[in-house]
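pasting for the record
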Amino acid sequence: MSRSGSTTRDRTRGARRGASPARSTVTRIRPRLDRRRKRLVVLGSVGVLLAVLAWVVLASPLLAVRAVQVDGTGTLTVDEVRQVAGVAAGTPLVRVDTAAAAARVAALPQVASAQVTRGWPDRVVVTLVERTPVAVVESAGTRSLVDATGTVFDTITGDAPAGVVPLQVTDPGPDDAATRAALAAVVSLPDAVRTQVTSVTATGADDVTLTLADGTTVLWGSAEQADRKAEVLAAVLDQLAAGSVDPAAQIDVSSPEAVVLR
């Protein structure tokens, strides 16, 4: 055999060397296919998980309203507030319109402010602040409570709550200057003085008069310097009670630095 010729062994080696690229190509393709399959499986699993989570949050009873908690009631009952809030049991928490529920509760005359929040996992919490009465007004035989802002919010038939004084104004309300001036006087009085007040009358923003239980009238004037007037009035009443000054039927504190007794 010629040395320049090729043997069967040589041809076999050549064939093997020629087959190596094809085997290498197959090896590269398979990992790509595997990665694609894994990616599809992961994406499918994530999709299923998101669908389950959406169902749990939006439709399942697992995160639905089972109780409506009410905090801050005084004159109102818990059942009254729950009914007005209008949050139905079984409603998914995420679907509860907390702003609308709070607005409905805040619309109650007795409520000064209201807030509705979600209490995960199964309750809605209604927190409210009721109005505090400081005066009572009468119109056409109906007696109504008034808070410090001048808002008329509730009617009463019996005695007014302790510390609530009768208020006489022509047009009671938060926009009435006479009402605001009279209430500024009332809220500035210390408890010991307020309990002696039997009525407060205001014909205008600068003409507030208090009547005490012993018949003494107090010319208060305007709402300006209300705290100073209250301080001076309390001191004068203490002096009258102690007998250190002569009795007076009228006390003028409209100018608190120049009190006049008549």
